[in-house]
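Please produce the structure of this protein holding adenosine-5'-diphosphate.
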Amino acid sequence: MKTAIYPGSFDPITVGHVDIIERISKIFDHVIVLISETPHKSYLFSSPERKNLIEESLRHLKNVSVDIHEGLTVDYIKKNRAQVIVRGLRAVVDFEYEMTMANINKKLDPELETLLVFASPETYYVSSRGVKEVARYNGSLEGLVPDVVKKSLMKKMK
Ligand code: ADP
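Below is the modeled complex.
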């Protein structure tokens, strides 16, 4: 059984995240979307809210589950017997950070592989930060986030 972990903040999940998850769910037996809880970071949505939004957005994918984790992703991976971390690459600016993280994780757990997946041309420009900015100023969220996220974002920004 091949399990991949897709870690991130998902504050909130966007169509870019959904695209990556749909694609990797076809390659792996099981995908765990892992909400990384970082106490010193401030989020718009609490981790249970983010978990709920991800689950609602991915109802159509039967081999995907969602979990919350505080601490090192490698520790979660060891506990859950996964082999691969998946990260999305939008542009060159993502590359250096992702390469550094992949190497740190490899140092911590040599058995682990990081798989970088290119963002699709339709969604590469979408980011959680960007959609929050659009929502803050009442812009259209059409095509940027799943419908359930659209509703929650609009409620939060009221
Ligand atoms: P983090 O704070 O860990 O970067 P994010 O929720 O912003 O968490 O992103 C999680 C992962 O999803 C990262 O690998 C990021 O590069 C990727 N990602 C974010 N937006 C997109 C997108 N539009 N297309 C493809 N990958 C994306």
